[in-house]
């Protein structure tokens, strides 16, 4: 919950706007401000104070405890011009909240945390548990000192400005192993959620016994409890109180599998007891191995202080992180037609793959430390293969394309290469036909199709058959790749086929470099279009028999009868 505190009428007005925008997330604290701040500090995970920073500093100072647990505090000035992240920038979420508040109020976010200022993701904001000398290693990164990244297990980290080679005094280790003897330099341990602990338990096994067994198994194997991703067991034990409580205390989900599924998993130590009880010869090992991985700790049983038979079993499996491939459409060119989601994915990726001219389009958005693999025109298959190969190594990869990356672009060759051992995320982009449509007016108001006139990968007969079908079906057509120096007869031929079914006066829109600096557009007709004015930076949209030019704009009615009825 976000606590809102204000003193003046102007502050209260801004406060009410925020409360109206986020009714579910906010609570207004009335009354004397000192009192209100103290109550909100105790009850909320974040505060927005519509008060001077000085006043808030004095009020929260005596309340501050620990930056991992204190609420984040944001101040908004009397004029509502700035949203200042005051304390708890990372741990308390104040930096992110300042940006959100600024968005709602039309203010400027003020964030002074060093890592944010130089665009470094804070080591404590990577979404992974972190241990060690966070301050020292962060300082080294900020100062540009060499910091090594040692990855013992793969995990798709966002980019970090680390240095190859070494050894260096500062190290970030991505590992699920317990720290060895104290390192000489400064070290940060990032804990990827790579460990799955399979557990079995007889009825009413005590939670302490289950938890003690799990923690002991991890400790003896030199593994960190902070890397446990989940506990796993058989469906029949989904509500077994000792197992449920152990998962809760570890702060991880409990995943369950059917006995039949577990019975099919091959394990080193099957036994008769669980077969009789729940219908599978292995619970702990089979549940841990159900989604693959490497068995690090084979089945072991709990030891009871009273010497009675063990009531719990566990086994530990390592499941390395899956690489992540984001296929990101950059839109037609203009920065404000690049979606926020695309931006987030570009900044999430540690490896960027794309055509050099598209990389140039977004280079300034990339975080320091992003590895850029750019190549020239052509080489599409190779780009796709590279992107997939990097993701399979466990990296977070963004493969970029202009417009929408799935439209005559990289998504299909990449996904044709990709196996199911990586995660794939698609981010849609504004494709050229839509960008051009918005410039021309409303040419796509009824059924429409895109046809690429490039016969590089598609035989001309196939293209011609599709153009003919669109012509006969009276569908609006947008031609991509309409004409290049070496390919100049295809567009006239395609237009001639459409002209067999449409009037010479049918509107045709020609848009070159939509949303780019040298954008141009023209509205003409089937009879008057001069193909020489069309090149590879252009899309050509041909109307259907109902499309009209109205006030200089290209308009395709929503239906053939629709507009008549409206009259
Ligand atoms: N994935 C891209 C299309 C790639 S095919 C998209 O979704 O837009 C390349 C063709 O797209 C070009 O030959 C041209 O016909 C068209 N195109 C791409 N961007 C364009 C733009 N900004 N303006 C006009 N046409 C564009």
TrEMBL record:
Listed pathway(s)? Cofactor biosynthesis; adenosylcobalamin biosynthesis
Q: Which residues form the CobE/GbiG C-terminal domain?
A: 195-316
Domain Tetrapyrrole methylase residue range list = 324-529
Q: Which GO terms describe its molecular function?
A: methyltransferase activity
Pfam families cross-referenced by the UniProt entry: CbiG_C (PF01890), CbiG_N (PF11760), TP_methylase (PF00590)
Which keywords does this chain's UniProt record carry?
A: Cobalamin biosynthesis, Methyltransferase, S-adenosyl-L-methionine, Transferase
Q: Where is the Cobalamin synthesis G N-terminal domain?
A: 36-116
Give the GO terms filed under biological process for this record: cobalamin biosynthetic process; methylation
NCBIfam families reported for this sequence: cobJ_cbiH (TIGR01466)
Recorded protein name is Precorrin-3B C(17)-methyltransferase
């Amino acid at each position: 919950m976000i606590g809102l505190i204000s003193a003046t009428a102007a502050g209260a007005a801004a406060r009410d706007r925020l409360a109206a925008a986020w009714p579910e997330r906010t609570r207004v604290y009335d009354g004397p401000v000192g009192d209100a701040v103290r109550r909100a500090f105790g009850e909320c995970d974040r505060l927005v104070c519509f008060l001077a920073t000085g006043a808030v500093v004095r009020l929260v100072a005596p309340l501050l405890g620990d930056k991992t647990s204190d609420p984040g505090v944001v101040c908004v000035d009397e004029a509502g011009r700035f949203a200042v992240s005051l304390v708890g920038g990372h741990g308390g979420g104040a930096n992110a909240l300042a940006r959100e508040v600024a968005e709602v109020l039309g203010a400027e976010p003020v964030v002074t945390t060093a890592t944010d200022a130089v665009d470094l993701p804070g080591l404590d904001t990577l979404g992974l548990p972190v241990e060690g000398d966070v301050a020292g290693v962060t300082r080294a990164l900020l100062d540009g000192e060499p910091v090594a990244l040692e990855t013992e297990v793969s995990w798709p980290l966002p980019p970090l400005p680390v240095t190859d080679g070494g050894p260096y005094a500062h190290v970030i280790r991505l590992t699920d192993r317990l720290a060895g003897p104290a390192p000489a330099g400064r070290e940060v341990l990032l804990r990827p959620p790579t460990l799955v602990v399979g557990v079995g338990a007889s009825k009413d096994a005590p939670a302490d016994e289950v938890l003690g067994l799990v923690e002991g198994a991890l400790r003896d194997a030199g593994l960190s409890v902070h890397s446990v991703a989940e506990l796993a067991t058989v469906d029949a034990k989904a509500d077994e109180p000792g197992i449920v409580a152990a998962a809760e205390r570890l702060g991880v989900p409990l995943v369950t599998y059917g006995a039949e599924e577990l019975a099919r998993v091959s394990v080193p130590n099957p036994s008769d007891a669980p077969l009789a009880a729940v219908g599978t010869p292995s619970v702990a090992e089979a549940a841990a191995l159900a989604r693959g991985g490497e068995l690090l700790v084979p089945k072991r049983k709990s030891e009871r202080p009273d010497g009675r038979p063990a009531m719990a079993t566990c086994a530990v499996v390592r499941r390395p992180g899956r690489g992540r491939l984001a296929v990101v459409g950059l839109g037609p060119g203009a920065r404000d037609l690049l979606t926020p989601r695309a931006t987030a994915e570009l900044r999430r990726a540690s490896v960027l793959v794309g055509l050099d001219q598209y990389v140039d389009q977004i280079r300034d958005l990339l975080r320091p430390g992003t590895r850029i693999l750019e190549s020239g025109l052509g080489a599409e298959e190779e780009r796709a293969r590279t992107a997939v190969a990097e993701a399979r190594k466990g990296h977070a990869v963004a493969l970029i394309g202009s417009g929408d990356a799935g439209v005559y672009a990289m998504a299909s060759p990449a996904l044709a290469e990709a196996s199911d051992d990586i995660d794939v995320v698609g981010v849609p982009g504004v494709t050229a036909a839509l960008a051009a449509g918005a410039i021309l007016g409303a040419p796509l108001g009824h059924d429409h199709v895109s046809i690429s006139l490039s016969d590089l990968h598609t035989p001309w007969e196939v293209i011609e058959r599709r153009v003919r079908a669109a012509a006969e079906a009276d569908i609006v057509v947008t031609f991509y790749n309409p004409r290049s120096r070496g390919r100049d007869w295809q567009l006239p031929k395609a237009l001639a086929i459409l002209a067999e079914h449409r009037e010479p006066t049918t509107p045709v829109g020609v848009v070159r470099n939509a949303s780019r600096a040298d954008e141009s557009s023209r509205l003409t007709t089937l009879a008057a279009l001069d193909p020489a004015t069309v090149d590879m930076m252009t899309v050509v949209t041909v109307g259907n028999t109902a499309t009209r030019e109205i006030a200089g704009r290209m308009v395709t009615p929503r239906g053939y009868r629709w507009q008549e009825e409206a009259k």
